[in-house]
Sequence to fold (427 residues):
Amino acid sequence: MPVIAIIGAQWGDEGKGKVVDLLAEKARVVVRFSGGDNAGHTVVNPYGEFKLHLIPSGIFYPQVVCIIGNGVVINPKVLIDEVDQLNQRGIDTSKLFISDRANLIMPYHTLLDGLEEELRGGKALGTTRKGIGPAFADKAARLGIRIGELLDKEALLERLRFILEYKNVILTKIYGVSPLSLNEVYSQYCQYGERLAPYIRETTTMLEEALAKDELVILEGAQGTLLDPDFGTYPYTTSSSPLAGGGCVGAGLGPTAISRILGVFKAYCTRVGGGPMPTELKDEIGDLIRERAGEYGTTTGRPRRCGWFDAVAGRFSTRINGFTGAALTRLDILGVLPLLKICVGYKLDGKTIDYFPGNVASLERCQPIYEELPGWQVPISHIRQYRKLPIKAQQYVARLEELISCPINLISVGARREQTIHKMPIL
Ligand code: IMP
Fold:
């Protein structure tokens, strides 16, 4: 059995939750490997509709071990609330485990995320203000606290005293806000530690065991490729790697362990937050897509920017992740449009280019070059076989496959598990 990585191929919100929920039926382990509670994975299944921020989308299958990997930053309060909410709705979380190496989001991280955004003024990044950037910055600066450290209260007190002193200087002297109390933060985090202790483990050995038994492991990505700090629209990115390569580091697996990498693409593009988006539609078509698809952030409720499918970005995403296949989601949404456009190149300073520029200022100047295809203009949410899709919908899918240089295995035509067309086997 392979390890399969499910990766956001655009700017996040591609529908990874649904794809993981579908594939997890055959899996033994599902690991979230990056991001934090900036993510919002929507899953609609026989138990109802769920919006998961930290817990892997495999949690609905009793046989699946769900791991929050070392690459995730964890707000313990959000995690505890999520566990409680799932339990209240009858979902068992006894097979949930958290890597002891995962860093914590501390109260100063959320505070600083907001303060930094305010200070950036018109140049704000549009972060989710969940403390993600400051927590990953501290991890890199060796000022982070790992969740495993909550289990040794004495050592935690010493480490927190040292770090909080430093953070309070920043809060009071730079931002002019009140300092945080060591006692309050310490006692709060000790309580979180007591509550989460049963879940905290060394988790790489759990993966090793599953692989030794030839069981299916799914790496569940968060956010999307174009939000990667190296390959995304930097600085308008998130702070951890949503790429397949990030999956190895964030879960604790070697690259050779991964045998399938599935890119999840929406049939059009969306983006939430600041930064360039060459195919953005600031007109009634963009509004129509947003309203028809309910394109509002799962975590922040912000309206998502909507636009045509960007195949230049798509091809780039295939290449840097090494996609072996793709899932195309929300194809049904396009069913009311008489004409569809796909961006096949950019015009940059009078020249035609077919690559995704690394420099954000260049990307901002890129004008999309579109190819036009006729829309199918009929509902398709009830269709389960590829050959039963209207021919114009098949042509749209086939053209995307060609442009992104990747076969499309799955097509999603609605939120529910069964609203899926299995075009080609993944495994
Ligand atoms: P941060 O990850 O909260 O620091 O936000 C940085 C950028 O990533 C902002 O533009 C956010 O809107 C975007 N972002 C973060 N998480 C998600 C997500 O799960 N889906 C879509 N956009 C996201």
Remarks:
- The two ends are 8 Å apart (CA to CA).
